[in-house]
Q: What sequence folds into this?
């Protein structure tokens, strides 16, 4: 069981009625995150959405709490607690990223890049219309997450995207694009970029 009580501090969800959205098409909703209530919804469409936490900042903060807690569980006997914390962080980061939070994309990338959940990732039954999707390729997921963060101008996202491009993790290796990402990181932040460029020149 997760020990962090942070979720209990969440305020009541803010609910809005939306035009019907089919299950598995949440990204087509006009606002918020649609959800399906099998008590009130009579067909396979969502007509209600949660519009609280519009920028994903609450979920991002809670995800960070669970991620940090997971990092503190290092003993073999604490493995289940560690994985449970990272699984909670993944869902919260997914929520933040889904609401356009670039840091949420970056943090989610770290979950996948280091396989923090040891293969036990969120897989939606509804997104696959009754079939649970297979274990995801974490390298591909990490690449996509870092790409979103980099495209949003997050310096660390550029740096991490450069890493996976250089190593060919989740994508074809492309050293030219990797260097471009490191240069972008240098322009955004400088510290990691200077260190990386120094290594390249050496």
A:
């Amino acid at each position: 069981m997760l020990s962090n009580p942070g979720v209990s501090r969440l305020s009541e969800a803010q609910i809005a009625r939306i035009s019907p959205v089919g299950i598995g098409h949440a990204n087509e909703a006009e606002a918020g995150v649609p959800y399906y209530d099998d008590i009130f919804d009579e067909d396979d469409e969502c007509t209600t959405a949660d519009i609280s936490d519009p920028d994903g900042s609450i979920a991002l903060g809670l995800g960070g709490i669970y991620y940090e807690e997971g990092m503190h569980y290092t003993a073999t006997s604490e493995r289940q607690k560690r994985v449970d914390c990272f699984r909670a962080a993944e869902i919260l980061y997914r929520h933040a990223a889904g609401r356009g939070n670039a840091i949420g994309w970056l943090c989610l990338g770290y979950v996948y890049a280091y396989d923090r959940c040891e293969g036990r990732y969120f897989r939606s039954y509804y997104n696959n219309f009754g079939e649970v999707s297979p274990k995801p390729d974490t390298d591909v997921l990490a690449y996509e997450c870092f790409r979103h963060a980099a495209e949003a101008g997050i310096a660390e996202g550029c740096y991490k995207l450069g890493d996976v491009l250089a190593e060919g993790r989740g994508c074809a290796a492309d050293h030219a694009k990797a260097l471009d990402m490191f240069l972008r990181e240098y322009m955004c932040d400088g510290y990691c970029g200077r260190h990386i460029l120094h290594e390249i020149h050496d």
Observations:
- The two ends are 49 Å apart (CA to CA).
- The beta strands are 15-22, 33-35, 45-50.
- Residues 14-50 form one domain.
- The first strand starts at residue 15 and ends at 22.
